[in-house]
Amino acid sequence: MYKLKVNGKEEFDLDPKTGTDWSIEHTGGDSYHIIKNSKSFNAEIVDFNKEEKLFKIKVNNNIYAIEVKDKMDLLLEKLGMSNQLTSKVNEIKAPMPGLVLEIKVQVGDELSKGDPVLILEAMKMENMIKAPGEGIVKSIEVKTGEAVEKNQVMIHLA
Fold it and tell me: Quick one: which of 143, 154, 149 has its CA closest to 97?
């Protein structure tokens, strides 16, 4: 059993075992053909955030944001434990050795999960380091042009 929320509003229950009024056929790549209530739809997965279980799907040229909750998510929500999945982050560490190219935040900035924090160059590639959770920038421990080691603390959050 899955609960789907479309564009943050409409909610639907989806049970693949009892879904007899619809069929889905994979047509290659990220494309699917769906038949529901004798109506035909072409669908394409535009984006998928596995961690947040959020899909962006184009159906007949309209894009929909779909949040998916499986039975474990629903059970945690029922037990009042769903908000425990987001953890408080106190530090942003370097995921790899590299060179700090640009710092995109200042002390006092409020961060939300996914906000760009800095650009780290590693192996001649620029990597956007994003906030892993919410917080306020307490201190910045690195400077532009500085080399960092893996797991080195770059930013402290309050």
Answer: 149
